[in-house]
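Database export, one record per block. Field names are fixed; values are copied verbatim from the stored entry.
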Amino acid sequence: MGKLKFVLIVTCGSILAFSFNVKYTGIQEPWKAPAAADTLVSPYLIEPLTLPQGQEIYTIYCASCHGHQGMSDGTATNNLKVKPLKFQDKKVSSQTNGAIFWKIREGRGEMPSFRDVLSDEQKWQMVEYIRDISKPYEEQLNPLKARH
């Protein structure tokens, strides 16, 4: 019984010591969509209401973290462990539309999955809207764009 008690104490002590020595840095591994996501293409036509509808959905579900112009300056960012990237960042802008759609659908960490919240059409509208607000303000096509 003495040997088992010693092993348990050493094991618990090691775990405890390790947990106090690990410092949370707020950094997580780069988020890469699987290669198959790059082949996803929107089956929907871009229509006059695509960007305004994408803006409405984005404002409801995303702006609090990503900010109204995708600058990662939403009001909720103070409470996040990992701050989202700015949409203008090359790590975001170089991704395919399919990869962005996949990330919206799947979520990760503090970003929720929108698989069951939004229709596929709404997710694709958000992809188009994200692409639009990733451009300089003067080049954005959304007729209802607004500075925030």
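Remark 1: The mean pLDDT is 85.
Remark 2: Helices lie at 2-21, 50-61, 63-66, 90-93, 97-106, 120-133.
End of record.
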